[in-house]
Amino acid sequence: MTRICFELQVAPEHLEEYVARHRAVWPEMLAEIEAAGRRNYSLFLAGEGRLVGYYETDDDAAARAYLAASPVAARWEAEMSRFFVGLAGRADQATTPLTEVFNLEDQLRESRI
Q: Which residues form the signal peptide (predicted)?
């Protein structure tokens, strides 16, 4: 299992609508995220539109490929693209994972060996 965390920037003038759109994500989009193999997926919004996303997956490359080929994901990402600042391409394909520097469970497990 791999943990993926990423950042995006939501345009400040679109914050309210962005949040509202994520209160009721299309059921077919939710199904595609799950079918892609992404689990425990969350988005967190910080000040001035800083968005932090997190999910877990067994194979991130396969998950990205699945979503890249999904017509549902393509429609969702096309509708959502106007919310982001400085993003080249689809958000589900263009994010760069952040480097994980600490995980409690990993260190606890290693300290018990």
A: none
Decide: 73 and 32 in contact? Cβ < 8 Å: yes
- Identify the burial level of 67 via C-beta atoms within 10 angstroms of its C-beta, where 0-12 means exposed, 13-18 middle and 19 or more buried: buried
pLDDT tens sequence across 55-76: 999 999 999 999 999 999 999 9
Point out the residues that are catalytic: 22
Question: Which of 82, 57, 77 is CA-nearest to residue 67?
Answer: 77
Domains of the chain: 2-111 (3.30.70.100)
User: Which pTM value belongs to this model?
Assistant: 0.90
Single-letter amino acid, residue 2: T
3-state secondary structure 25-73: CCHHHHHHHHHHCCEEEEEEECHHHEEEEEEEECCHHHHHHHHHCCHHH
